Structures are given as C-alpha cells and as structure tokens.
Amino acid sequence: MMKKIVFLGCGSMGEAILSGMLAAGTLPSAVTVTVRRPERAHELATRHGVTALASNEEPGANAEAVAGASVVILGVKPVGIIDLCREIADALPGDAVVVSVAAAVSLAQMEAALHPGQPVVRSMPNTPLKVGRGVVALSAGTAADEHHLAAAHEIFDGSGVVLDVPEDQQNAVSAISGSGPAYAFYLAEAMAAAAEGFGLSPQIAQILARETVAGAGIMLAEPGANATELRRAVTSPNGTTEQAIASFDRDGLPAIIETGAQAAAARAAQITAELAAPN
C-alpha cells in the first residue's frame, strides 16, 4: 500500500492522474507535488490539498520531495527525465517505484540514471485520462516486481483502462492510443469542414461533428462493444452510409491511417535515440 506518492512535475497530465486517484479514493494521505513556479504550486495545494513545492524557490525541492516516498511519478517533458533521475537518485528510498509518464524515454535509460536495483515502470497514458476515459500501457523495468507493477496500476485505475505490455510495444501503443485522440479530433475537423461544404453554418457544422464523434465514442465504450459490429449496424445495404464507407475504402483510408501510425511510432523511436545520444 502506498504511504507517500510524489509527483515531480505536475502539468495537465499529472493533475489528471492526481484527480483520478482522488475520485477513486486511492490517493494516500501523504502527497507531495513539485513544479517550477510558486503560483502553480499554490494553485495545486489549494485545489487538491497536497503539499506543493516550487523548485524556482527551493532548488532542492525534488530531492526533498522524494524522501520517504513509496511511488514517484516523473511528469516532466521527455528531454528532462534523465537529468531528473540523476537529481533524485541519492534521495530515493531503494524500494520506491519510479513511474515515468514521458513518451520515448526507455526503461534502460532511466535505470542507468538511477541507482542499481531501483524499481522503474514506464507508462504511456493518453489525454482522455482527464475525463476518466483514458487508456494506459505499463512496462516494468528489470527491478520492478508484481508489487511495484500493482502500485503503478493503482495510480491509473481511477482514470481509465490499464494494460501491461512489453516495452518493445510501447511505441506502437504511443502511435495508437497516445496519438489516437488527435486522430479522432482530426476526423471531427474533417467532418465539420465537409458539413460547411454542404452549406451548413460553421456553428451547426461543429456541433454535428463534435457530438457525433463523442456519441460514437460513448457507444464504443459500452461493455462488449465492437467497432466493426457497430459500423455494420449503421451501414444499411445500398444505403447512404454504405456509399461513404465504399468511398473511404477506394481512397485507401485504412492504409492512410496505418501509414500515419507507423510514422508516429518511427518518430517515437527516433526521439529515444536522440535522448540516448551523447551531448
């Protein structure tokens, strides 16, 4: 059971995780958050009742925060993860599990920056975490056992679906669920543009596209829902929807989506290599 959880960096994703744990009742009584600006620290302390430190005022805030921690969440940008690991390495309890929410930073890179044997878990959450509909993929490091992985699950369980995957599948996860919300928003943009092309007002076009994509998402979230079956249910033979789907197939829309996902995964691998390159 977690005695103390620490968020090192708490932007929108970190705050979404924090809010999810609060809603699920899984947040321990001892919670410390570090951010750069004192204004943000005050905001988080007031809103969530946590201890919040500002590193701009307290240069040693990160090392101070992790003392006695059970779980430490690394919520800074990928480019800052390794330096942060080095900064806190000496202050971390040996059994504290370090959970990264940064894309592209490998377990090996984090483990090399921490003391040998430090448990590390790599996660890939997505932005619907903010509304309790996220999906999170977890990969355990060499020193992380089932108890450490269970602690990582507990962090995210209140905000969405949590899956365990081998680390070599993390870039694929990033390309589908990590970037995926942007694909859905892109679809809504295209639908709204098509609606305007029919002469509908921009306001009505936006409402039609937004509510249709959101409503379809809710249907997909129903237990046992299957995208193929749902699509077939609204695609009547010789009907209007069938003509649209046939047009999408002729234009190669599935292949376009696959190519885009492959490009996203390739970029994630490239970022990992860039972060590993010596300065």
What does this structure look like?
One of its GO terms (molecular function) is pyrroline-5-carboxylate reductase activity. Catalyzes the reduction of 1-pyrroline-5-carboxylate (PCA) to L-proline. It catalyses: L-proline + NADP(+) = (S)-1-pyrroline-5-carboxylate + NADPH + 2 H(+); L-proline + NAD(+) = (S)-1-pyrroline-5-carboxylate + NADH + 2 H(+). It is found in: Cytoplasm. Its EC number is 1.5.1.2. Helix 5 links the parallel strand 5 (97-100) and strand 6. The chain has 2 domains: 4-166, Rossmann fold (3-Layer(aba) Sandwich); 180-264, Orthogonal Bundle (ProC C-terminal domain-like fold), CATH 1.10.3730. The model has no long low-confidence stretch (mean pLDDT 95). The longest helix has 24 residues, at 253-276. The chain is built from 12 helices and 8 strands. It has 279 residues and is α/β, with parallel strands linked by helices. The chain has an 8-stranded mixed sheet, with helices on both faces. Helix 4 runs parallel beside helix 5 and helix 7 crosses helix 12. The chain is elongated, with a radius of gyration of 21 Å.
Structure described in brief:
With 279 residues, the protein is of the alpha/beta class. It contains twelve helices and eight strands. α7 crosses α12 (253-276) and α8 packs antiparallel against α9.
